[in-house]
């Protein structure tokens, strides 16, 4: 039996176990309301959650999930911190900045375990597509651009400084795209499976991209399901969360097995997309849900490896090692705190923005 088949069976068993936590059959009582706020307006990375919704995986575990669009990860993290949306979807970097600012939030599942951050450029002006083209490149950014953190680490790994490129500061993300399309900038920093295909769809201009990881082996944990710490203290909410994670894992695994169907499901909820672009974004997303160390493990979890951050000189120094609980632990009700998490708060846990150096052999 191959690993994907074993994983599919495991996820079905775990979802069944989660459903059994209900005090009565799902058909005998109203399902629990469960709003879930996304990081941005819809794009292909979100498709697995809609697969779980449309295939009835959430209903199977007694949840009435409402998937809500977001307006940027910083805003969404704040909504989670103030309990407006206790469960949401943001990138790990934004989450950790929030924790450092005192937000009572933590991650309970990391969907993207490699960074999708890339140079995105017009295909007829592919710059920079290799290290020798980075110096003096014109890169469009916004003030306080979240991508600058990983870009600083990237430049440090290459023994370069951010000042070696020309940063073109613009007012908002849409202006970044226009700067590249109009030739005022060579590239922007963004997610290869989102912004590139979307720009191509909207403008009709063929786009290209080069991942930072492909150039220098620098990566980070990326998108994650996060929760409000105080909300999660309620045993009823813990139970709802277990069921949500189980059904979401099924949605992601089903998407992996049936990407074409997932694309068709997604465009029903995101009619601005066509099937081609939706499928391109979905298949791109699925390439970064695991590392070689978590390939056969349940989605959202696994061994992180050696966690590093850039020092002031642009180099790297080790922060800590940490093993993330396996997703199956979500369903082990014997555990005092069965929800796996990455946290900088509570029970003395520590986590920092994770920069991975491929030279360690860990990631």
Description:
This protein is of the alpha/beta class. The chain has 2 domains: 3-114 and 221-360, Periplasmic binding protein-like II (D-Maltodextrin-Binding Protein, domain 2); 117-216, Periplasmic binding protein-like II (D-Maltodextrin-Binding Protein, domain 2), CATH 3.40.190. The chain has helices at residues 3-19, 47-54, 57-60, 73-81, 92-100, 147-157, 173-181, 195-203, 212-216, 235-257, 259-269, 275-286, and strands at 32-37, 63-68, 87-91, 105-110, 117-122, 138-142, 166-170, 187-191, 207-211, 218-220, 223-228, 303-310, 316-323, 355-357. The strands form 5 sheets. It has a 5-stranded mixed beta sheet, sandwiched between helices. The radius of gyration is 20 Å and the shape is globular. Mean pLDDT is 78; it is low at 21-27 and 302-363.
Basic shape: globular
First and last CA, distance: 27 Å
- The main sheet orders its strands as 7-6-8-5-9
CATH architectural category of the largest domain = 3-Layer(aba) Sandwich
CATH class of the largest domain: Alpha Beta
Class by helix and strand content? alpha/beta
CATH homologous superfamily placement of the largest domain: Periplasmic binding protein-like II
Question: In CATH terms, what is the fold-level topology of the largest domain?
Answer: D-Maltodextrin-Binding Protein, domain 2
Separate helix tally: 12
In terms of DSSP E residues, the strand content is: 15-25%
Instruction: Please give the domain count.
Output: 2
Describe the largest sheet.
Answer: 5 strands, mixed
